[in-house]
Amino acid sequence: MSDVLAVDNFDEKIEYLKKTIKSIPDYPKPGILFRDITSLCIDKKAFALCIDVLYDLFKDKNIDKVVSAEARGFVFGAPLAARLGAGFVMVRKPGKLPRETIKEDYDLEYGHNSLHMHKDSIEKGDRVLVLDDLLATGGTIGAIIKLIRSLGGDIYKAAFIIELEDLGGREIISKTYNVETTSLITFPGH
User: Fold this and answer.
1) Do 138 and 169 touch, CB atoms closer than 8 A?
2) Is the pTM of this model over 0.85?
3) What are the catalytic residues?
4) Which of 22, 51, 111, 153 sits 20 to 30 Å CA-CA off 32?
């Protein structure tokens, strides 16, 4: 990942972040080892460090909009957008946005859903960074990519705090959508 050269002591910072993430066995169902990002957020040093690292990775990339899905994506997307001087676009579940929206149906690890975005949130040619807390199978991000592209946005990259590398989301996003990904922390398993 060539972007890491922009971050001083990248490996040390990432190791600190990784240590703050708690692993919860058999949640939300037996056999799943859930990676709980809320424990990173509780740690004030880790949360600030996470936003700082993301900022260092993307500060010189001329990002117009940061797009994140509810709810945990908002936790990281909004402060990063503010630091980058970019707009922040909220992608939400049905019935949560007040103006005219576009929607995309998608599958996820435990079922399916749809995501909505305001129709006027992306302008043609906007340089967009997609940011979410976790990359698993890529279903949520695939839906977000489709929404952004339908409005004429140019996706610079999709970024994640955590990637569950055994689930293949990175490859799916690359092959299916031709979008490069960056993940701060990778974990094996599911």
Assistant:
1) yes
2) yes
3) 72, 109
4) 51
